[in-house]
Amino acid sequence: MSKRLHPLAQKFFKGELTPSELLESYLVRIEKHNPSLNAYLTVSFDEALSQAKKVEEKIVRGDDLGVLAGVPVAVKDNICTEGIRTTCASKILENFIPIYDATVIEKLKAEDAIIVGKTNMDEFAMGSSTENSAFGPSKNPWDLDRTPGGSSGGSAVAVAADLAPLALGSDTGGSIRQPAAFCGLVGLKPTYGLVSRYGLVAFASSLDQVGPMAKNVADCAFLLQVIAGHDPKDSTSFPNEVPDYLACLEEPFKKMKVGVVRELAGEGIEKGVKEVFDWALNRLADAGVIVEEVSLPSFEYALSAYYLIAPAEASSNLARYDGVRYGYRDFEAKDIWEMYAKTRAEGFGAEVKRRIMLGTYALSAGYYEAYYGQAQKIRTLIIQDFNRAFEQYDLLVSPTAPTVPFKLGEKVDDPLQMYLSDVCTIPVNLAGLPAISIPAGLSDGLPVGFQIIGSSFSEPMVFQLAKLAEEAFSFQFKPSY
Fold first, then answer.
1. Domains in the chain: how many in total?
2. The pTM is what?
């Protein structure tokens, strides 16, 4: 891995500030703004300050520093952190403190990053607005009456409101890319297996991936460089060598042929979003990118397939929260069966219960093949459509989300409308591919995301086009907060 230090860490050697001063500048903003934004559920003040002091001591001694030395990182609250509360934004894990670090946290600490706190999210990552959190919704810094997206909404808000320079999220059906789009950020969902899932609290194991969120493409590449790589503790982790993503950004741009996915850029896309997307395509064409339309017909069924596969896996993964071993327990129950029922009824929120019931039904005897089995066949068709498309095109593009950030409360009572928020992002998870969202422009003063999709392990090419697009779009980051 490249040993160049992150630009913030380089400031320490120029005498511009110390790690403690940098951290305290973020802690002051967190203390001032988090009560209204609700980005963080837990802020690790003491632990973070202690880490900053250790980095300062290493600088004084002249020790080798990690590439993220002294850089604060916000972490989504479904990623285990030793000694720091990890709730998944659920009552059932309200007081859970892990006894180990997730692999991605170990990697951050190995590079001397500072874990500043745990961010709000939709409960167990099930949602598209961060309104399903048991601890209240996060607010979008561009407009406090609007959602920041989800489920990694708290991580997006933390970066967008300058409560952290970098953040980790997780993406099961768009949960990094959609909030990145809603908050005017860059967010990457890596290839399935590129980043270890060890220590990520499971929602849907065949779909979940941890990924980076930042204000620019270079920072996103920097954070991926740190967290990517094989992990023997994750059986789905690939043993591939990790490329130098930062070096890829500096290579001369090679002419690319890009396919615009017709099924993700037409019907159902808000007028303002479509206008910004079309403008962005023209900017890419002006920059020398060949842009053509491509049809991937199986995408019509992606949403339906996802909302059978993901809840089915969630039904299995969430069975462990029974009040016996850890987490919330109802102590008023008369027997163990009543304890199970009451614990889960009181500990889980409405959306989590809905998905557990959907998944349990889809897996039940007599319905398995009709629902879960058929959904897996659709998944295969989607993978085949992607493979055919990548025979003709280097990368594919679409809007990241069909709308601009919607108002808080607007869709919370209409699950089907809420599910449609992920219509552009879900096919990528079903196929296990990498995709990045970058801000393209504004519609009615609110950010619009532009999604770039690559074939498996094509992150270097994805980053290259994202960097070119970033320069071509010249997005001005001006949240109202």
1. 2
2. 0.96
Residue burial 278-313, b: 16+ Cβ < 10 Å; e: rest: eebbebbeeeebeeeebebebbebbbebbbbbbbbb
- Supply 425's token pair: 């992002």
User: Would you please indicate which residues are annotated as catalytic (active-site) residues?
Assistant: 76, 151, 175
| Tokens, residue 367 | 């319905």
Domain interval for residue 44: 7-255
End-of-domain residue from the set 255, 274, 290: 255
43 shares a domain with 132: yes
Together in a domain, 177 and 243? yes
Q: Determine contact, residues 175/151, Cβ cutoff 8 Å.
A: yes
One-letter amino acid for residue 436 of the chain:
I
| Model pLDDT for residues 75-112, shown as the tens digit of each residue | 999 999 999 999 999 999 999 999 999 999 999 999 99
- Residues whose CB falls within 8 Å of the CB of residue 361, separated by 6 or more in sequence, listed in order: 367, 371
Does residue 474 form part of some domain?
no
Residue 296 lies in a domain: no
> Residue 9 in contact with residue 67, Cβ under 8 Å?
yes
C-alpha count within 13 angstroms, C-beta hemisphere, residue 350 = 6
